[in-house]
Every structure is written in structure tokens, then in C-alpha cells.
From TrEMBL:
Residues 1-27 form the signal peptide. It comes from the Bacteria. GO terms for molecular function: serine-type endopeptidase activity. Residues 459-669 form the Peptidase S9 prolyl oligopeptidase catalytic domain. Pfam families: PD40, Peptidase_S9. Keywords: Hydrolase, Protease, Serine protease, Signal. One of its GO terms (biological process) is proteolysis. InterPro entries: 6-blade_b-propeller_TolB-like, AB_hydrolase_fold, Peptidase_S9_cat, Peptidase_S9A, WD40. It comes from Marilutibacter spongiae. This is S9 family peptidase.
Length: 672
């Protein structure tokens, strides 16, 4: 599935440097002669680094415990009542199983590449196992596999070629598996259905565009589907699997966002999430709704909650529905009894993000993951009848004292434009070091999320905790205009020609920093990945005198070249957000706002990090900005991993990246 509005982009976390002596040096492009003579480069395994000094041993030791934290996320129940987990015990995250609260975690998959999650077969299906996906080197051409828990054998379910396969959904009887795939032409995302007994698969939707399966009808004869256009527009429908007939549902106002879509137990009415207009009135937020086509009755089940619904799930017995709302970045859990839709009393939950909901086979227990600013993700189980909460995992925090971790404070700062005659206020999370001596001014790191339709939320980050606790750095994490979670009007404020308005929000944050005596406005650094990397480069371009240094991870340096070189299946999705580079007027705007063309204005120290296999933001975006900024005489730090994609998922790589980043801050922000 595409990322929903309230899903946050994953933070790039890390820790220890990789051991081993450097081998012969080469440039990131593979041609030594093309690089300036001042560039110092080395190659160690799959890592290429340029101008990055050796990481001091004492820094590695200080980082060690912070970067040996880990979390565990629940992925669903197995037939025998165990929980599947995603967690890391070595180099990459793999699928584990735990069968009782605080029980032993049994590792089930063992791959050099990460396994991001698992989909368990329905307990009533008689199948005992789960589906998982993995790619190679971060290229995101993920293939689906079946893991049989009885035989422990793994079977490839998809073509095994250069195709992306994701969004798997089981029928209730486990005989059919629907998923989306680019295997037909590499450009469009079709919907396929696999017969799990016969071992055959067929395409059931080949309409062009990006289609995703949502839910099988209880009898397995129909499939809810959705065509994703952008975060603000989807088009749901239903496929008759026997005839192949696709029927699109009418959308009030012709254009709306849709989230989850699922059949009610009766097999006719549906539950879904949307911001579709109600009685002709536009809606700002994604609400949970129930629609019965037989009576035409529409009910809004979260009408009294002025925030987005981020996810929901139904129990297999059809007696309960659970959903999560994203309330100013905090996840709030709700459970309804069906068919009355009466709220169910719940135990108190830890404050944080609640996600990954799944009911046990009997519908009496609800598993979920909770991640907080001061604690990594862990799996919890709610007994609905007893109204009790049981923690099933307790993830490690590197032997550190979690009481010393800092929780952020939600702040708001005024920006350049107005709403109803008052300055527009931009939300941000402010991590402030504890026990700051009177009169001491804190250096600041501004972390800018990607997406751009993502949302920074108060999740656990060992890197942030290290900056705050070990280095005494204040960390500000803003949700500039265009961020999800604050309504669709806010979401659209940076679209197309208004792209740089979000950069102006960073300028307003710099103004806010200057009004707070405890913050050192002369020592501000910016950090961000993907679209956040573009924001870093653009901020350095527009505010070179106010930003001391910047770290750009897998960032966009020119929207025109980015759209030209991104993978084919992503291009139409990104045009919906950024604009069409083939339109002359939009191409002109791209030329004006792209950091590559303003590289001469970037005079602050810059660190650029990239994965060679990135299908989203090609590595050429990093190469060209590095070379352009070096043209200013700046000794840009550059890091390239040959075995990574859009971010760093292997522990050794992310450890080195974080150590290098901290060293960069020490030298260029902290004056150490």
C-alpha cells in the first residue's frame, strides 16, 4: 500500500562504525580522474566515502549503547496463538515469533536483506504460515514469499524478476492471495490474485495507474480495490473475480482521499476511511465510515474526533472493530462492538504511536505496537473482556537508563502568512536537554521529515537522544506546510508552484529560534532525508548566513532530473505532488527552485549520504549536488552505500552513517 497521510517517514537511525582497513580508493562515480584533487576518498566493502575523516574511537564508544537499542513490532497472530514480530538481533530486521508475554523470541527468517513484516494466514483457513516480502540491496523490487510454519520451507510467490510486489491480502479461507505488482510492464501497478492451492496467479485489474487490493468479500468472490492517484485522491471499487468486471464506486465531489476499505461481516456493507464530502460539505480530516448500499445509509463513526483516522481492522468473528486516530501526532486507540458500534472501554495505554492492529482468532484479544518518544516499539495485547493491557516484549535500550531519555514538547511558531487574520502557526516537537546551566545557549539541529506528505511524530530515536543527552543539542522537528495529519487544506499548501513556501516555514523557525534565549541562533544545523533532503539543500540555499551546516540524506537536488530518473512506476505518483516536468511552465519553476541551480549559494558545510540502489531518488541526485557545491570550494562530505536504497537498513551501514554525522556536527556545528 502507499503510505497513508499519517504514517511518518522512517528516521535514519544508526551507530557503530564498520571495522576493517580501507582498500584502494575510488570515486563514487568510479572514475577517479573526474574528481577534484582535494577530494579524499576511500572504499571499504560496499561503502564509498569522500572527505569523511576517520571516526575517533572514543566517539564510537560513546555511540555504542545508543545504537544498540532495538524495537519489536507486532505483525499478527499465528494459528496457535503466537505473535509474529519484526525485530533485529543482528544486521537486519527479520521475522520472529513469541508465544507468551515476555517469552523467548524465536527467529524465523534469516536473510542478509531486511524483512519488513509478515502477513499471517487467517486462523480459520487451516493454513499455518505467513507471507513476507524482501528486496535486494534496497532496490524495492520486493518479491513475496510464503513461509510454512510446519515444514519451515519458503516458497517464492511472485515472478522473482525486476518487479515490485506488495500490499498482500488473504481471503478469509486462505485460498486466495491478492497483491499489487508492476510485473506486467514495469510502469503500472496491477492487481493480481494467486490461487494458493494451485500455485497459479492471474491479473484481475490492468487498468493502468497504481491499484491496490483492499479486502476479499467473506465468500471470496469479490475484491475491494483502490486506484491511488495522490495522497489527496484515490478511487475505490469492486472486482467480480469470476467475470473480471470492475465497478468503481461514485465519489462525492469526484475527488477525495481514501484509506482502508473492508467488507462488514454481512459481505455487503463496507467500512472505510475517507475525507469525502458529507452532505455537500467539504471535510478536512479522514474519518471512519460505514456504508450500506442496500439502504443507502452512511454513518460517520469518528465524527466527534477532529483528526485523521490512520488505520482500522475488523476481528475475524465480526464482533469488533479497532481504529487509531492521529491526534496532533499522538496515536489514540478506539474499539467498537459490532454491529451496535458501541465504544468498548479500554485500559490506559502508554502515550505514543499505536499501530499494527490485529485481533486474535477468537476476537477476544487485540495486538498492537506502541512506540513512544522515550521507548522503542514493543508489542502489547489487550484483553477486551478483562479490559487489561499486557506487554509481550520489552526491547533493549543498550543498557541505558530510559529515565534519562527526553520527551519532546509540542510548540507552535508563527510563519509568514495568515489564517483568519492571524499568523499561521506551524507545529514542531522540541527536544530540550535536561539540566541546562543558566545562561548556556544550546546549539540546534532542525530535523525535517520527508514525504513531503509525511508527518514528524514523537517516535523513539536513539540518534536524537544521543544529540540531546550526550552532546547537549536542542532538536526541533517541525511539520511544515504540506505535512500530513493537520487536514487536507494544510496538506495542499506546498503543492506545485508553492513548493518554496515550505522552505519559508523553515525561515520562520529560524526566526523563532532567535527569540528564545536558551537557543543559539548562530549554531543551527539542518538534517533531512528524501524530500527532507531537498528541504535541507533549499534551506542552505536560502539561508546560508543563518544555518551553520546541513546533512542531506537521499535528497532531491533538481525536481526535473529527479522526475526523469525515478523509477517508471513512481513517476506519475510524484508528478501529482510536485508537478509535471514536461509542462513548460512547471519546468521553468523547477529550474528556479531546484538547489542544483542555486548551488553557488550553498556556502555552509554539507554532508550528502545516498544509497546506490535507490529507486525513488536516484543516486545521481546526490552526485550532481556534491559536484556543484564543491565548485564553491566547499569540501563536501559524501557517503555512498552500494548495497542500500532509499535510506540505510543494514546496521553496519547505518552505524557508520550516524557516527559520521555526529562527527560532522562536532566539527561544523559544535566547534569541537
Amino acid at each position: 500500500m502507499p503510505l497513508g497521510r499519517t504514517q511518518a517517514s522512517a528516521l535514519l537511525l544508526s551507530a557503530l562504525a564498520l571495522a576493517g582497513a580501507p582498500t584502494a580508493a575510488r570515486s563514487a562515480t568510479g572514475t577517479d580522474a573526474s574528481a577534484p584533487s582535494s577530494v579524499v576518498r576511500e572504499e571499504v566493502g560496499n561503502r564509498v566515502s569522500e572527505n569523511i575523516p576517520a571516526i575517533p574511537a572514543d566517539l564510537l564508544e560513546r555511540l555504542n549503547r545508543y545504537q544498540n537499542t532495538r524495537g519489536a513490532s507486532a505483525s499478527g497472530w499465528t494459528r496457535d496463538g503466537c505473535l509474529l514480530l519484526g525485530t533485529r538481533f543482528s544486521e537486519t530486521s527479520q521475522v520472529h515469533r513469541v508465544c507468551e508475554p515476555m517469552g523467548m523470541r524465536e527467529q524465523l527468517t534469516f536473510y542478509p536483506e531486511p524483512v519488513p513484516g509478515a502477513l499471517a494466514a487467517p486462523a480459520t483457513s487451516g493454513r499455518d504460515g505467513f507471507v513476507f516480502s524482501k528486496d535486494v540491496g534496497g532496490d524495492e523490487f520486493s518479491q513475496l514469499h510464503w513461509f510454512d510454519l510446519q515444514s519451515r520451507e519458503v516458497s517464492l510467490l511472485t515472478d522473482g524478476k525486476r518487479s515490485q510486489n506488495r500490499g498482500a491480502v488473504f481471503s478469509d479461507d486462505g485460498r486466495q492471495l491478492a497483491y499489487s505488482s508492476t510485473s506486467r510492464n514495469g510502469k503500472d501497478t496491477d492487481i493480481w490474485v494467486r490461487d494458493m492451492q494451485a500455485g497459479t496467479a492471474r491479473a484481475v485489474v490492468t487498468e493502468g495507474g497504481s491499484w491496490f487490493p483492499m479486502d476479499f468479500s467473506p465468500d471470496g468472490k469479490r475484491l475491494l480495490v483502490s486506484r491511488y492517484v495522490s495522497i489527496a485522491e484515490s478511487h475505490p471499487g469492486e472486482v467480480d473475480l469470476a467475470s473480471g468486471e470492475l465497478t468503481l464506486f461514485p465519489v462525492d465531489g469526484d475527488r477525495a482521499a481514501f484509506g482502508g476499505f473492508a467488507y462488514a461481516p454481512d459481505g455487503e456493507s463496507v467500512y472505510y476511511v475517507s475525507d469525502e464530502p458529507l452532505q455537500g460539505q467539504a471535510q478536512e480530516f479522514l474519518t471512519l465510515r460505514h456504508h450500506d448500499p442496500r439502504s443507502g445509509r452512511l454513518e460517520v463513526l469518528s465524527a466527534d474526533i477532529p483528526w485523521d483516522v490512520s488505520e482500522f481492522t475488523l476481528s475475524e468473528d465480526g464482533r469488533h472493530l479497532a481504529f487509531v486516530t492521529n491526534e496532533d501526532g499522538i496515536g489514540k486507540l478506539h474499539v467498537l462492538a459490532l454491529p451496535s458500534q458501541r465504544p468498548v472501554a479500554l485500559p490506559d495505554l502508554p502515550v505514543g504511536l499505536a499501530y499494527g492492529l490485529s485481533f486474535s482468532a477468537d476476537g477476544q484479544k487485540l495486538a498492537l505496537s506502541i512506540n513512544g518518544a522515550t521507548s522503542p516499539s514493543d508489542a502489547y495485547v489487550i484483553d477486551l473482556a478483562a479490559r487489561s493491557l499486557t506487554r509481550w516484549t520489552r526491547s533493549e535500550v543498550g543498557g541505558l537508563d530510559p529515565e534519562r531519555f527526553v520527551a519532546p514538547r509540542l510548540v507552535h511558531f508563527p510563519t509568514f502568512d495568515q489564517v483568519d487574520g492571524q499568523p499561521r502557526m506551524i507545529p514542531a516537537f522540541y527536544y530540550r536537554p535536561a539540566d541546562v546551566p543558566a545562561g548556556k545557549k544550546l546549539p540546534v539541529v532542525v530535523q525535517i521529515h520527508g514525504g513531503p506528505e509525511s508527518q514528524a511524530r514523537p517516535t523513539f530515536s536513539p540518534t536524537t537522544q544521543f544529540l540531546v543527552n550526550a552532546l547537549g543539542v536542542a532538536v526541533l522537528v517541525p511539520n511544515v506546510r504540506g505535512s500530513a495529519g493537520y487536514g487536507k487544506s494544510y496538506l495542499a499548501l506546498d503543492n506545485a508552484a508553492r513548493r518554496e513556501d515550505s522552505v519559508r516555514d523553515i525561515g520562520a523557525l529560524l526566526d523563532w529560534v532567535g527569540t528564545h534565549p536558551e537557543l543559539d541562533a548562530s549554531r543551527v544545523g539542518v538534517y533531512g532525508g528524501s524530500y527532507g533532503g531537498y528541504m535541507v539543500l533549499a534551506s542552505l540555499m536560502h539561508y546560508p548566513e543563518r544555518i551553520r551546516a546541513g546533512v542531506d540524506i537521499v535528497g532531491i537536488s533538481h525536481f526535473g532530473t529527479f522526475l526523469k530518473n525515478t523509477e517508471d512506476y513512481r513517476r506519475h505518483l510524484r508528478r501529482a505532488e510536485y508537478g509535471d516536468e514536461t509542462d513548460p511552465e512547471m519546468a521553468r519553476i523547477f529550474e528556479e527552485i531546484s538547489p542544483l541551480n542555486g548551488a553557488s549559494k550553498i556556502t555552509s558545510p554539507l554532508f550528502v549520504a545516498q544509497g546506490k540502489n535507490d529507486p525513488r531518488v536516484p543516486w545521481t541526485e546526490a552526485e550532481q549536488i556534491v559536484q556543484a557545491v564543491r565548485g564553491n570550494g566547499q569540501p563536501v562530505w559524501y557517503l555512498l552505500f552500494d548495497d542500500e536504497g532509499h535510506g540505510f537498513r543494514k546496521k553496519t551501514n547505518s552505524d557508520y552513517f550516524t557516527a559520521a554525522t555526529v562527527l560532522f556536527w562536532q566539527q561544523h556545528l559544535l566547534d569541537e
